[in-house]
Amino acid sequence: MSLNALYADVLYIFALTTLAGACIPLGGVLASIERISPNWLEQEFRHFLIAFGGGILVGAVAVVLVPEGLKEMGHSVLGIYFILGGGLLFFGIERLLGVKQKEAPQLTGVLLDYIPEAAALGGLIVASPKIAPLLAALIALQNLPEGFNAYRELNDQPGYTPRKTLRFMSMLVISGPVAGLLGYFFLAGHREVLGAIMLVASGGILYLIFQDIAPQSRLNHHWSPPLGAVFGFCLTMYSDMLVSYG
Predict the structure, then answer these.
(1) pTM, whole model, 2 decimals?
(2) What keywords sit in the KW lines (predicted)?
(3) Looking at CB atoms within 10 Å, which of 19, 155, 158, 227 has the fewest?
(4) SS (H, E, C) 17-50
């Protein structure tokens, strides 16, 4: 590979992952705006966004992470064990955080899909370049509602102020380009490892959806928030169709 091509790839990865990651603090900024009135509309909107983010996560698992992860692993049955391992891994992480009384499922969800998917994106630039823009768009779409919900979650924690919360969320953006470049330089030539990371992330995402995110999306005597999950999943499928079939 020529130096110019390498330089172009690095800039491409940096731009894609940074733009996707910028949706984390952007979601936080939207959440920091004065609360919506009346209160029932505030509750409805927040729960809709939680469900919408969950729907996108389900779509990312079903449309991108599992199919591409299995493909990179040659459709080996070992892929199932990596998905199970991902669920068990993040079960352990959540229990550890629970012991320390630092549960933050929305923030954990942000990091869980943003960092592994950014690393996978870096590897896909070489392995499957056609999928990379779709994955970047999905990361951005996931990060916006997750950033919104993570802001509300963090801001309710003791010791956090709106400014401190947004500063912390902004610092998370840089983890995407770092993960993406690591994926480009170290994972592109190890497709089985790339696939394993995507499958482990899938298992962890599925665990978080059913343990934390889906229960939070329910609102008694309101039926529109769960539709957000349907919209999120359909948006993911539509994005995949645009890339796959033009």
Answers:
(1) 0.72
(2) Membrane, Transmembrane, Transmembrane helix
(3) 158
(4) HHHHHCHHHHHHHHHHCCCCCCHHHHHHHHHHHH
